[in-house]
Amino acid sequence: MEKPAIFKGSKEGIVLVVNPESPFNEVIDFLNKTFEERKLFFSGASVILNPNGRLIAEEELGEMADVFARYGLSFKIMGEEKVYGKEVIASRDLNEEKVALIPHTIRSGQAINFDGSIVVLGDINEGAEINVSKSVYVFGIIRGIVNAGESVVSLGFQPLRMTIGKKQLGKELSDKTYRKPRIAKIENGEVVFKVVGEKQSLRRRE
Hints:
The chain is of the alpha/beta class and 206 residues long. 15% of the residues lie in helices and 42% in strands.
């Protein structure tokens, strides 16, 4: 392994494998350079750190966390639950309703749970999951799992699974309309889809 570290893809998400023989400052330089050059690729990512036999001191973890946080990223050590860095989620109260803003695509392996509504400025990729008590607004395509209490608005619906209230839709749903946002909600006990701003509705047949 020649580089200070390498990134690899896995079923769990993006894995950072550290070279146990490289000086730690070279690992930090590698992270800064990689994140700066590939901002779009890593935007909002949560990374799994594989120390690869290297003993990483607490202060070194803190320094690494600072780099991740600077780019709005987070990581956790393989096999552990503690999260370092930060996930960029801004929340505020609108008419006494909690609203969280996710300013990026939700990637595979990421799961968001929120008591309120969520606005996603990107896609919800396959392998990602969102669970909210109110509504989900997606400025992109839904390909993962979405569970909402009230409604879901998106530019395209291709979910692996989607639940609104207690009504569940499977992956057979594939709406590839990207031009106009649609809202999915419960009416008379059934899920209906409406083009936002238009009166007509498309009732989902079970």
